Amino acid sequence: MDLLTKSRLERAANLLLDCVRGWRSDKDAPRLSLSRMITNMSTGRLHGQDSEYLQETARENGVVFDANRPFIAFRDLQVAAQGASLVGIDALSPVFDILRPYSVIAQLGVQVEDGLIGNTLVPRETVVASSNVTWFSNEVSTTGLSTPTLGSTTLTPKIFGLVNQYSRQAVMQTNADRFLGLDLLRGCGAVVNQVAIRGASANSQPLGVTNVTGTQSMSGAALSGASCNQMLQLSSDQNAADGQISFLGTATVRRILQARERSAGSGFVWDNNQVSGRPAAVSSDVPSGTLICGPWNVVYIGIWGRGFVLEVNPYDPTGFKAGLIQARMILSLDVAVRAPGAFVIASSVT
Predict the structure, then answer these.
(1) For 144, which of 103, 107, 132, 235 could close a Cys bridge (C-beta 3.0–4.6 Å)?
(2) Which residues of 175-202 are buried (b: 16+ CB within 10 A; e: fewer)?
(3) CATH 1.20.1260.10 fits 216-296+341-347, yes or no
(4) Per-domain residue ranges of the chain
(5) Mean pLDDT of 298-315
(6) Residue 104 burial by CB count (10 A; 0-12/13-18/19+): exposed, middle or buried?
(7) Confidence bin at 52 (pLDDT 50/70/90)
(8) Cα 228–Cα 229–Cα 231 angle in degrees, nearest 5
(9) Cα(307)–Cα(157) distance, integer angstroms
(10) How far is 166 from 51, CA to CA, in rounded Å?
(11) Is the Cβ–Cβ distance between 342 and 294 less than 8 Å?
(12) Which of 17-31, 162-176, 245-259 has the lowest mean pLDDT?
């Protein structure tokens, strides 16, 4: 069984057990105040409901509780509808709660898997070929053999860190939970976007779609509606499902294609957030002048652990004098593109 699928099934089983035990419900879900926690940690204290909740979170995830370096599970990063606090929830794919609203590629359908431990092997078919189908002439006929060409991509942890600095006044304001929560979530979403789209292994990053070997390329000079149709065809020729193919470009590329007609009087190339009848989105993380066409569901984001450790530096002498608080978060992740040939990249779009 694919290790990614196995991990999902294990979490589903654990969720079912929790429901049977009946000890967790939305009504009784503890609330974690990020601003209060950061303020208390900056003065060397972590107590009350925050401390109790973080101790229970550590126990559930097999982590030794450390009041100076508390472990925060991904599922705890769901911001309430009114932004009042961070609410613990259960989900089969909890890491999406911190990525989907803040990452374009998460919205386009990338597969995200958390809870990884060792290096993870992601299998893929390296040569697309039709299966050898035999029609039986009678009940004793035999079928021929089909031997797919298989390969694999190994996910290995690549580590990144974020250090944010807040004033004590900002942390103590009434809307601090919403502000700090959104700041943290946007940081996570930005990192995932950047590395999945254009990560470069030379910089100790995961290898992103625009740098992975095996993608198809097209010239973007005077890119037309016919050219975009060809990009869609090239992606579909690699057996990419039509319902999963999307276009992703920069805001400048969108502006160019929104002003360019497919043909006289037939509408524009980029129209109503679609290109060639498929969804189209923009991201500042796409390389300049680039339009990408492909099925983002073949991209896997692997994240080690089921959360992160939040560390607050109470010993910075400069910050102490100015009333500033530094909070650090470190995560390990990697990217695997299972079918790089299904991505078509048009560069230097004009």
Answers:
(1) 132
(2) ebbbbbbeebbebbbbbbbbbbbbbeee
(3) no
(4) 3-116+156-204+301-337, 216-296+341-347
(5) 79
(6) buried
(7) confident
(8) 60
(9) 14
(10) 21
(11) yes
(12) 17-31
